[in-house]
Design a protein that fits this description.
This protein is of the alpha+beta class. Helix content is about 25%, strand content about 15%. Bound molecules: protoporphyrin IX containing FE (HEM). The site of protoporphyrin IX containing FE has 27 residues, from strand 4, strand 5, strand 6 and helix 9. GO terms for molecular function: catalase activity.
Length: about 525
Amino acid sequence: ARLHDLTLRRGSGGEYHQIAEGGAPTMTTAQGAPVADDQNTLKVGQRGPLLIEDFQFREKLFHFDHERIPERVVHARGYGAHGYFETYDSLAQFTRANIFQRAGEITPAFVRFSTVAGSKGSMDLARDVRGFAVKLYTQEGNWDLVGNNMPVFFIQDAIKFPDVIHSVKPEPDRAFPQAQSAHDTFWDFISLTPESMHMVMWVMSDRAIPRSFRFMEGFGVHTFRLVNAQDQSTFVKFHWKPKQGMQSVLWNEAVKINGADPDFHRRDLWGAIQAGDFPEWELRLQLFDQDFADGLDFDVLDPTKLVPEEILPPVPVGRLVLDRMPDNFFAETEQVAFMTQNVPPGIDFSDDPLLQGRNFSYLDTQLKRLGSPNFAQLPINAPKCRFANFQQDGHMAMRNPTGRAIYQPNSFGIGPREDPARGFRSYPAQEVGPKSRLRPESFADHYSQARMFFHSQTAVEQRHIVNALAFELGRCEVPAIRLRMLAHLRSIDETLAVAVGDALGVSELPEAATPAVPVRDLPPSPALSILQNS
Ligand code: HEM
């Protein structure tokens, strides 16, 4: 390739110019005017003040001054890749979703992995939940499966989301710490929120410091519905299983990697895909009906609970392959807008109160973040199937409807019409009851699955959890928070509480927290241990 040299030259009048040489295409302004000099502003004389008539300079600086958009309020740091989803077999029996009708169907996909708490410039190896957001460009509209690398969540009700996130973000007076680690406000909130105990076990486990995005699982978390052509519904939980296996790093490795290469996870994904080593995940479904749900001793609408794979093995239904990096990080990875509400016909929501709240939040936040109701027209967000409606105007409208009438019904035969047979129909679930803010009794058990998770870990993994808790709580400045957490740990597992208490130098453990319902001893689930899986 020819280098376009910059040279200092003397012009015909003897004056200095810094000017490009070589055969590059001509640069233009945003309006298309060819640019003669992109090195020097227009001035009065050679040493005088700048002229405001220098439209070329003004346009360049104006655009630069407005390059930044708000980072995501959560999951700000992320990294994406393109790929495809391949359907193994028809699932027409369970769903009329177009993506699941034909064996071998290939659907384009875009995936964004992320950390939750840190800012856009934070380090990849933070102890944190990882986002695992998948956009599937199906032939009947985009389906976004906006998941995480852990199958449960901190809270049961969406109204608590601002609280849990405020507790984990930098403290407002001092503006640190950046990450979840060693955070008084985070542990304060958690210790006052027993429903978070199961998730906290996951976050203190090896799952929270994955070796790379390629070696982690993904989960839709909530119970969703599949709905077939006869309007019959089957509950479903979505799981992504990495064909690479699962791997994590140790905390002291994570600390060193963060220092040596804060972009470690980005570099790993970039390197693997550029080298043709395409990472792959299998989509597996846990499918169940109302009777099965009624027979469980927890509520499938409670996002702090998982359905153990031993009770209900997930069925493989397809594979996701990532084989191409974006051409432009901002245009694709930053501007992509995932929304839980993006579901095609055949996939529907359950009444999980966290999912219901999320369905409001994503559209709302993305108007703020992307600045225009037309963000769906951006190439990364636009469906890859035909789409047609009467939405018009707004900032940056690039795709207005044409013709005389942009409403329906109209007498001119213009434009698209609804299609009751093909279109999205909400599953007609029976919903009755008084308005209420009460939590259901079926959401009251906060410790049994936390205990199950701890017991499912190998001895090595349990030691990592003890070390993580001792490190985190040891750096809490407020002793009462530490003691409150030890009380919860006693309700999860006595040996865990004793080990953490010893490491913290607490001579007398506080009384165990009082559970709202008795803690049950569930059989440990081998599927929850990374070491037993790899
Ligand atoms: C991103 C809200 C729970 C996964 C976001 C964003 C918001 C948000 C506002 C930023 C979106 C953007 O600017 O594009 C909420 C609320 C929740 C909730 C209100 C609970 C009530 C969850 C849960 C999961 C999850 C349970 C996992 C199952 C994600 C992911 C992203 C994200 C993966 C990043 C998407 C991307 O890569 O662009 N969430 N969230 N969120 N959320 Fe949630």
